Predict the 3D structure of the following.
Amino acid sequence: MAIFGFKKRKDEKLEQNAEASKTSVDKKINTKARVAKKTDKAQKVVASKVVAPKLQSEVDSSAASIIIHPRITEKSGVMSQSGVYTFEISKNSNKAMVKKAFVTLYKVQPVRVAIVNTPAKKVFVRGRRGVVSGIKKAVVTVKKGEKIDFV
Protein backbone atom coordinates (compact mmCIF):
# COMPACT_ATOMS: atom_id res chain seq x y z
CA MET A 1 0.00 0.00 0.00
CA ALA A 2 3.02 2.25 0.24
CA ILE A 3 2.87 2.76 -3.52
CA PHE A 4 -0.18 5.00 -3.27
CA GLY A 5 0.97 6.79 -0.12
CA PHE A 6 -1.77 5.38 2.14
CA LYS A 7 0.69 4.32 4.81
CA LYS A 8 2.42 7.71 4.75
CA ARG A 9 -0.90 9.54 5.18
CA LYS A 10 -1.86 7.19 8.00
CA ASP A 11 1.46 7.89 9.79
CA GLU A 12 0.97 11.64 9.33
CA LYS A 13 -2.51 11.44 10.87
CA LEU A 14 -1.14 9.50 13.85
CA GLU A 15 1.56 12.14 14.38
CA GLN A 16 -0.99 14.96 14.18
CA ASN A 17 -3.22 13.20 16.70
CA ALA A 18 -0.27 12.73 19.05
CA GLU A 19 0.66 16.41 18.81
CA ALA A 20 -2.96 17.43 19.39
CA SER A 21 -3.19 15.29 22.50
CA LYS A 22 0.07 16.78 23.85
CA THR A 23 -1.24 20.32 23.40
CA SER A 24 -4.54 19.46 25.06
CA VAL A 25 -2.70 17.96 28.05
CA ASP A 26 -0.51 21.09 28.27
CA LYS A 27 -3.63 23.30 28.19
CA LYS A 28 -5.18 21.26 30.99
CA ILE A 29 -2.04 21.61 33.11
CA ASN A 30 -1.95 25.36 32.48
CA THR A 31 -5.60 25.78 33.48
CA LYS A 32 -5.04 23.73 36.64
CA ALA A 33 -2.07 25.90 37.47
CA ARG A 34 -4.18 29.05 37.09
CA VAL A 35 -6.92 27.62 39.30
CA ALA A 36 -4.36 26.65 41.93
CA LYS A 37 -2.89 30.15 41.90
CA LYS A 38 -6.33 31.71 42.36
CA THR A 39 -7.27 29.56 45.33
CA ASP A 40 -5.18 30.62 48.28
CA LYS A 41 -7.28 28.62 50.73
CA ALA A 42 -6.28 25.19 49.51
CA GLN A 43 -2.72 26.05 48.47
CA LYS A 44 -2.56 23.08 46.16
CA VAL A 45 0.76 22.03 44.73
CA VAL A 46 0.45 21.64 41.00
CA ALA A 47 2.71 19.24 39.19
CA SER A 48 5.00 21.09 36.86
CA LYS A 49 7.79 20.09 34.57
CA VAL A 50 10.97 19.77 36.59
CA VAL A 51 14.22 19.61 34.69
CA ALA A 52 16.83 17.64 36.57
CA PRO A 53 20.27 19.21 36.60
CA LYS A 54 22.88 17.36 34.60
CA LEU A 55 25.14 15.11 36.56
CA GLN A 56 28.87 15.80 36.47
CA SER A 57 29.48 12.50 34.65
CA GLU A 58 27.05 13.50 31.88
CA VAL A 59 28.82 16.82 31.42
CA ASP A 60 32.23 15.14 31.38
CA SER A 61 31.10 12.53 28.87
CA SER A 62 29.84 15.18 26.46
CA ALA A 63 33.09 17.11 26.85
CA ALA A 64 35.05 13.91 26.31
CA SER A 65 33.08 13.20 23.15
CA ILE A 66 34.03 16.63 21.78
CA ILE A 67 37.73 16.48 22.67
CA ILE A 68 38.78 12.96 21.70
CA HIS A 69 42.43 13.01 22.83
CA PRO A 70 45.53 15.22 22.84
CA ARG A 71 47.58 15.06 19.66
CA ILE A 72 51.09 14.25 20.82
CA THR A 73 53.73 14.92 18.19
CA GLU A 74 57.18 16.48 18.22
CA LYS A 75 55.80 19.80 17.03
CA SER A 76 52.96 19.82 19.58
CA GLY A 77 55.46 19.02 22.34
CA VAL A 78 57.52 22.09 21.44
CA MET A 79 54.38 24.24 21.19
CA SER A 80 53.07 23.04 24.58
CA GLN A 81 56.09 24.62 26.28
CA SER A 82 54.78 28.01 25.14
CA GLY A 83 51.17 27.30 26.26
CA VAL A 84 49.72 26.07 22.94
CA TYR A 85 48.13 22.60 23.03
CA THR A 86 46.81 20.44 20.17
CA PHE A 87 43.82 18.10 20.45
CA GLU A 88 41.97 15.81 18.09
CA ILE A 89 38.27 16.73 18.15
CA SER A 90 35.04 15.30 16.75
CA LYS A 91 34.01 16.17 13.19
CA ASN A 92 30.85 18.06 14.17
CA SER A 93 32.35 20.28 16.87
CA ASN A 94 33.09 24.00 16.59
CA LYS A 95 35.21 26.55 18.46
CA ALA A 96 32.61 27.34 21.12
CA MET A 97 32.02 23.65 21.88
CA VAL A 98 35.77 23.01 22.11
CA LYS A 99 36.20 25.97 24.47
CA LYS A 100 33.46 24.73 26.83
CA ALA A 101 34.77 21.16 26.76
CA PHE A 102 38.32 22.38 27.44
CA VAL A 103 37.15 24.32 30.50
CA THR A 104 35.19 21.35 31.90
CA LEU A 105 38.00 18.84 31.35
CA TYR A 106 41.08 20.86 32.28
CA LYS A 107 39.65 23.69 34.46
CA VAL A 108 41.67 26.27 32.48
CA GLN A 109 40.16 29.13 30.47
CA PRO A 110 41.59 29.18 26.92
CA VAL A 111 42.63 32.47 25.34
CA ARG A 112 42.31 31.33 21.75
CA VAL A 113 40.99 28.29 19.85
CA ALA A 114 41.90 27.55 16.23
CA ILE A 115 40.49 24.61 14.29
CA VAL A 116 42.24 22.78 11.44
CA ASN A 117 40.32 20.30 9.30
CA THR A 118 42.77 17.94 7.56
CA PRO A 119 41.30 16.07 4.59
CA ALA A 120 41.60 12.32 3.96
CA LYS A 121 44.49 11.30 1.70
CA LYS A 122 44.84 8.46 -0.77
CA VAL A 123 48.00 6.39 -0.27
CA PHE A 124 49.72 3.56 -2.12
CA VAL A 125 51.68 1.23 0.15
CA ARG A 126 53.18 -2.18 -0.79
CA GLY A 127 51.16 -2.41 -3.96
CA ARG A 128 47.86 -1.71 -2.24
CA ARG A 129 45.72 1.37 -2.36
CA GLY A 130 44.39 2.81 0.82
CA VAL A 131 43.09 5.91 2.53
CA VAL A 132 44.52 7.75 5.51
CA SER A 133 41.50 9.15 7.31
CA GLY A 134 41.25 12.88 7.75
CA ILE A 135 40.95 14.40 11.19
CA LYS A 136 39.82 17.64 12.76
CA LYS A 137 42.14 19.15 15.31
CA ALA A 138 42.00 22.11 17.63
CA VAL A 139 44.95 24.28 18.60
CA VAL A 140 44.17 25.75 22.03
CA THR A 141 46.18 28.63 23.51
CA VAL A 142 46.13 29.25 27.26
CA LYS A 143 47.38 32.22 29.29
CA LYS A 144 51.10 32.59 29.77
CA GLY A 145 52.20 30.65 32.83
CA GLU A 146 49.23 28.25 32.88
CA LYS A 147 49.89 24.60 32.10
CA ILE A 148 47.75 21.49 31.77
CA ASP A 149 48.68 17.86 32.43
CA PHE A 150 47.67 15.09 30.06
CA VAL A 151 48.39 12.13 32.37
The longest helix spans residues 6-38. The two ends are 59 Å apart (CA to CA). The first strand starts at residue 67 and ends at 70.
